[in-house]
Amino acid sequence: MRYYLIAGEASGDLHGANLMAGILKADPDARFRFWGGDRMAEVGGAENLARHYKTASFFGLAEVALHLPEIFRQIRECKRDIDSYRPDAVILIDYPGFNFRMAKYAHGKGYPVFYYISPKVWAWKESRVEKIRKYVDRLFIIFPFEVDYFARKGIDAIFEGNPLADVVAARRADIPPREEFFASNGIPDDRPLVALLAGSRRSEIKYNLPFMAALSQRFPGHRFVVAGVDWLDRRLYDRLLEGTGVGFVSGATYPLLAYSEAAVVCSGTATLETALMNVPEVVCYRKDALSVFIGRFLVKIKFISLVNLIMDREVVRELIQQDMTLDNAAEELRALLPGGRKREKMLGDFAELARLVGGSGASDRFGERMVSELTAIRGMPE
């Protein structure tokens, strides 16, 4: 069968590639066309890449406003390409601003629409639930609590695990030996490590990394190291870390976590990655006052970390805004280091978390389920 996939950012490219590999296991004759990136091209063929996400990703109100003519042109381009390809299914991967437009269009044209990795409508923009109900034939979700949430909305969502578990398993297998990692990154192996995950956006790093660096001064017996992202200028980190003694690695988050005793994490997906790597963590998150004020009205969740949201209770401590003080963070971090009073309890909770998200193999299970669902929709014998 023929599949048209749309991913609009790096994470979508990664999960899209793993999903395509899973589809191929269930449908060896599968053919793909896609908006995505290099990882999807490795699976589906570079000749089938209609547009790279790097030329189609616009974030923030200002950037979107500046590029509206280009965005609308790309929407028209994608619609034409879908019709030219005439797929058996259109698979949308997160990226809601663009993909809901494609869902409406594809549904109106009679193409089965599968949405993979649902937008977080349970956190904000709940009005999008109606769009899912109207334009999406099958919704594939990656958090276990979403099953009940969507059921209450009259949507029978499909959960086969979380593909991040596949990513973690693959990255864990590629972690270099300890000596090699320390030597290649210029990190002296003289003290135990604490990993700092300060976010992936410039604004997050600006508001959170200086605090994390200040926290390091409370722990002279440990070496603190930042996991930098390779799409941001190194000079941003250098400017914020100057004179702090905090180390830096780029594009090496998983090895850093593997060799760290604990982590200080900004929020987002990194909280779940850290937990699945079995590294005790404390969440520290600060933004500008205006964003926080607006967020209190728009965001409808009681936790900001995926760990706590999935477990539906406080497993990791969240220090947000005024609670994010050096005294609070230092106390929590001490409790998580070896011998600390919270460490073993948190590691036990992480084991339960890993069970809830379903372990590795989720991408293959989603791929198999999509082929099965599409076969049923088309009335074809399996």
Descriptive tags:
7-stranded parallel sheet, globular, 16% strand, alpha/beta, 6-stranded parallel sheet, 382 residues
Task: Give an account of the 3D structure.
- It contains 18 helices and 13 strands.
- It has 382 residues and is α/β, with parallel strands linked by helices.
- A 7-stranded parallel sheet has the order 3-2-1-4-5-6-7, sandwiched between helices.
- Strand 8, helix 10 and strand 9 (223-228) form a beta-alpha-beta unit.
- Helix 1 runs parallel beside helix 2 (38-44), helix 1 packs across helix 18 (362-378) and helix 10 (202-216) packs parallel to helix 11 (234-241).
- The chain is globular, with a radius of gyration of 22 Å.
- The model has no long low-confidence stretch (mean pLDDT 91).
Topology:
Blueprint: E1 2-7, H1 10-26, E2 31-36, H2 38-44, E3 49-52, H3 61-66, H4 68-85, E4 89-93, H5 96-109, E5 113-116, H6 128-135, E6 138-141, H7 145-152, E7 158-159, H8 164-173, H9 178-184, E8 193-197, H10 202-216, E9 223-228, H11 234-241, E10 247-250, H12 253-258, E11 260-265, H13 269-276, E12 281-285, H14 289-298, H15 306-311, E13 318-320, H16 326-336, H17 343-357, H18 362-378
Helix pairs in contact: 1-2, 1-18, 4-5, 5-6, 10-11
